[in-house]
Request: fold
Amino acid sequence: MIYLVEHFYSIQGEGRYVGTPSLFFRFGGCNLKCEGFGCVEEAQNGAKVIGCDTVYAVNKEHFAHSWIEITQVEQLLKVFELYEFPEELDVVLTGGEPLIYAKDPLFITFLETLTKNNHRITFETNATIDVDFEKYPVYKECVFALSVKLENSGESVSKRVKGDIINSLASNAKDAFFKFSIDEDSITAALDEEIEQIIIHSPKTAVYCMPLGGNKADVEKNTLPLIEYCKNKGYNFSDRLHIRIWDENKGV
Ligand code: SF4
Reply:
C-alpha cells in the first residue's frame, strides 16, 4: 500500500534546483527514524513525537490518520488538476522515504506517466534503498538528491551509509547530487571525515550542505557557520528557503 501524506505546489527550497516551481508529493513511511534531529511534533492524542522535520510523514503509528491510501494511479494523477501550472513543471517526490515504494507497480506507472508528460522528477532520498535500474528503466530518467544522513541523525553508520547504493544511484540516474543537513555544533574535523567517507562512493557528484533545523530560528543559527564551512571545503551552500520563508508551516 502506498501512502500519500500531502501534495503542494511551491518552489523547491533546497539543493541544486532551489527556487524552481515544483509540484511536491510527500509519501508516508521511512526505513529510518533520525531521532537525533530532535524535532518534536504533537500527535492527535497529544503525544510528543521526536524525529526529523517531517516526522509526521515517517511515524505511521501516530500520524497515519492523515495519510491517504493510494490504490489507483489516478488518485496521484488527479492532483495535477488541482493546480495551475506553467508548461514545464518539476515534480519532486519526497517523504518520508519515497523509495520504500520503488518496486510497487502503481508507483512505477506513476513515474512512467510523469516522464511521458515531460516532467523532470527529483527524488529526495536517504540513499539507503536500492533501485533496480535495469528492471525499471524509468529511474534512469530521474534525478536523485542523495540526502545521506550524518551522525547528527542519531542513526548508526551501518543503517545510514550504504556505499554500493549511493554509487548505483549516482551512476545510473539522469543526475544526482549529495545534500547534507548540518548544524553548527557538528562542524568539527570529525564531520570532514564523515562526509569524505560518504562522498568517496561517488567522488564526482556535487555536494550541497544545508543548515539543519525544522524552524526558521534553527536554520538561521546554523547558516553562517555552515557558509564558512562550505567556503573552506569548496562545497555548495544550499539554503532551506521554504523554512526561512514559511517557518514550520507545512504544505507550502
Ligand atoms: S531518512 Fe529522512 S524522512 Fe526518514 S527519518 Fe531520516 S530525515 Fe526523516
The domain at 2-180 is CATH 3.20.20.70 (TIM Barrel). The chain has a mean pLDDT of 95. Residues 4 and 189 are 39 Å apart (CA to CA).
